[in-house]
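Continuing the series of single-chain predictions for the mutant panel. This is the parent chain; the variants come on the following pages.
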Amino acid sequence: GKGKDIQLYVIGATNKPWSLDHPFLRRFQKRIYVSLPSLEAREKLFQLYGNRLQLDDRVRPHTLASIFDGYSASDIKDICQAVQLKVVNELFSTTAYKEPIEGENPSKPRDITMKDFRETILRRKPSVSMDMIRAYYKWSEQFKAL
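Parent structure:
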């Protein structure tokens, strides 16, 4: 109620901050531009998502982080899912695949290799273009925190 010392924070996020109404925007005291992940952050993302994958021993998160410069955290998650689907689809499309039978070990997908990631980068471009990055930066400079 009135007169009580309440601390309330309202946080908003958008992919198109320049589309926000100026009176609405004025009500936010802080405006923070969150850039694409750094090399170190991408490496941690590949470690995080890679822990859930059956990776070949030669797959290195640091190398993947270098290859996927310019990709967002969401892109990296999608890429890890795409390489997983690739090897699973390979398994189902081979003649060696058999339906699981009770008491027998089911067929498993092969380990994911660096080649799988390199093939994926040919089909999966970053979701954020350089033009978009420039637009975000320009907006960030124009509407810095009050």
